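Before a colleague's protein record goes any further, I have to sign it off. I want your independent view on whether this chain really folds as the tokens say. The record follows directly below this note.
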Amino acid sequence: MRGRALLRGGGGMVDPGQQELLDKRPFVLLLAFLPTQCNNPHQINRLRRRSSMAKKKRTSKNGGAKPSPSPAEPAPPPPPPSIHEGELSSELSGAVDYGPEISEAQAVTRRQAGLDIVVRGTDRAANRRLAGKIESAVGDAIPHFPHRAAGAYALPHWQQKSRSPAGHSFYETDNFKARKKP
């Protein structure tokens, strides 16, 4: 317990000159006081490990900081999401199969007919926005998370609040992907 009090610098155990040094380098200087302040060998070993880790951070390149990306090379934007015909898989896994790519106008027409669509891409937020935009063009839409009862491979989706027309505007995320139609 005294080791913790010493680390925080409380209790008057350290004279003012040592306290100033302790505030700058708490783990390294704490080792100098350990033999008289702490008798627990496990605590001593833990503090030694902390001290060596602190030394490694101070002596590593850039002071232990992660290298920052070059401002001259911004990351390229992800490709825009694509819209595909969609169909629920015939098995009970909840998977969604995707077909050929279609335009946004074709997707709205398909949704008005009660058929499914799938929005695919690497940007989850863009996929969700586009699926919501298509579904909202059909009527009053609400988002849904994947339904557990649908199966392990169910996708998040948008659908009509009134459930008419039937069907869904599915979208892919990082963890949930549609399968290519066989």
Notes: Confidence is low (pLDDT under 50) at residues 1-12, 26-36. The CA atoms of residues 22 and 107 lie 67 Å apart.
